[in-house]
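User: My collaborator and I are trying to settle a disagreement about how two of our proteins should look. Neither of us wants to argue from intuition anymore, so we agreed to look at predicted structures for both before our next call. Could you fold the first one, then the second, and keep them clearly separated?

Assistant: That sounds like a sensible way to settle it. I'll keep them separate. The first protein:
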Amino acid sequence: MNSSIVSFCQVVLTLLLCSSAAYAFSRLRFIGRNVLYLVVLVALTVPLEVVLVPLYRLTGALGLENNLIAVFLPFVAQPLGLFLLRQAFDDIPRELDEAARIDGASHLQTLRHVLLPNIRPALATVAIFTFLFSWNAFLWPLVIINDPQNQLAQVVVAQAAGAPGELPNWGVIMSSASLTMLPVLLVFLVLQRYFVRGIALTGIKG
């Protein structure tokens, strides 16, 4: 249940934030846009281990330690999601935006009613990647969550192996791993056709 709550919140917030940011980078013109976009892409190369200590201190200062919010909130801004959605927006003709503005649509209305329905495969792709990242998270939940009642599935599966020196209970380990794999398979099977189309649309230009 904890993993489901964290994954759902992270997917929803990531789609909202990344789609809005991707629209701004793709459709709006502002000073420093390309430089800022490059900085966002550079963030893709920064591993979690580099920012683990300052992120832990910041989370503790905000009073979110041992809280499920602290598990997903630092990762809702996904550079990969922003990159994929901007690629998808760039492939949509700008004439659709112009037609919407002529009809009196605002930026938010254009994004919601015109552009987002045309990039559903890309949204599904970002949703799958985000869900996999959140569901399989191990190091950050292990660090920030101390209460066993709030712990996530992957950490519990690892703890099922027992303490060092003890004989592992392979039956418990294998059954736990199988159960935690089922939601991933279900999500992928449901969104498979959108995932394949999303990869094709965001990876091929022209």
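The second protein, kept apart from the first:
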Amino acid sequence: MLVLTLTAASCSRHAFEEQKPAVGDTAPGISAADLSGRMLRLADFRGKVVLLNFWASWCPPCREEMPGFQKIYLAYEDKGFVVITVAVNEVTLAEVKALGILFPVLIATDKVKRDYGDMSFPPVSFLVGRDGRIIKKVKKFYPEQELREDVEQALRG
């Protein structure tokens, strides 16, 4: 059983790394509504470093990484960093407020899910450079310190 689990984990990780969009690709366009119904587009943030995080309210690691995202967002927002989270399930404003999220929370459309691949097991994050290209993909909890280092490097250019 352990061998099967390790093999499945290895195969799914390999598949994720090769799955489109890949590091170096231009991030697929996103046009989706936030919780207030306001439409946002990823293209609106061109020229900034963007953490695009796919999450679900039922996912404990997703909720656990939000405070770190918030700290880094507040620390680097004035330097050109933004966080956009995309909920892959229905979330309420109350859930978002309870997490203390100050950055945009979009609701994933079917097109966004198709363009960014399998979101069955969030969290999944894409760090997008100022030029709109994917710098890094993370299919797991994105530790605060690792994100901080990645953002600092991306902002340096």
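Some points you might bring to the call about the second protein. The longest helix spans residues 2-18. The longest strand covers residues 49-55.
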